[in-house]
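User: I'm curious whether this sequence folds into something compact or stays loose and floppy. Could you predict its structure so I can see for myself?
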Amino acid sequence: MKQLSVAHLLGIKYLIKNDIDLIFETANHFKEVINRPIKKVPSLRDITIANLFFENSTRTKLSFELAEKRLSADVINFSASQSSVKKGETLIDTVNNILSMKVDIVVMRHASVGAGVFLSKHVDAKIINAGDGTHEHPTQALLDSYSIKEKLGTVKGKKIVIIGDILHSRVALSNIYALQLQGAKVKVCGPTTLIPRYITSLGVEVETNLKKALEWCDVANVLRVQHERMDIKYFPSTREYTQLFGINQQILDNLGKKIVIMHPGPINRGVEITSEVADSHDSIILNQVENGVAVRMAVIYLLAQQIKR
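Assistant: Here's the prediction. I'll summarize afterward.
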């Protein structure tokens, strides 16, 4: 049986192209499963998974939980806001306590960059990074690529523009790695204050004109402005941001071609994208949500195959 080249899913930068192909192949199978009347398979009946969310999350947490339950795993949910972490307990203490309950896989979201890598070196469980600070969010990038492939037939050779707050986005970095690994061309677009200086060293072009970016691309992946990660003002006002970088139906109608619209959520409707665009035929936002469960099932299943009993 084919296996992943990695022991954990810590970031896209640790994967090879074959890993992505295997994850997508496995996700195709699970997508068929979740569209059946009985949406469960007994694949992971003997596996226990802990969801450790040290940062608030609704969509990612629900998606992982659903994926785990569809695979018949035993699930433990841990929310740091209601835990001993507030009393000063360290990450290692928290995890060791959970591992003493014989957990096989840990899905973790944490505000610190590299938290998953740190954890993988100290605990004897498979680690899936569900977002570490402003660094990576590998399963989001995988489900985004999977959704593009499903819509356009391939990712290779496609032109993808990532629009918005690139500086604070773990989704952007993971997407850049994943798309380039599959042979796509990538540009980023947004206010210069929200584009990191190092971005061109990743082989990514910067475009500060929204119209030009949309005329160039096949797919626009629109990110929200992450006000919660900002300690200073990066642009004068939300209204000005919307005027320069917000996508509305009129802008798309004037392109003279169809492009695919994506958004990892949550959407700030009327800021980076209007409701009309988000809910249109060109949008695959709801497909991304559905594909998220299948892709996460695939990742969990493939890592679980490596667990020695």
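Summary: The chain has two domains: 12-137+289-304, 139-284. Strands lie at 48-53, 74-79, 105-110, 126-132, 159-163, 185-189, 205-207, 219-222, 260-262.
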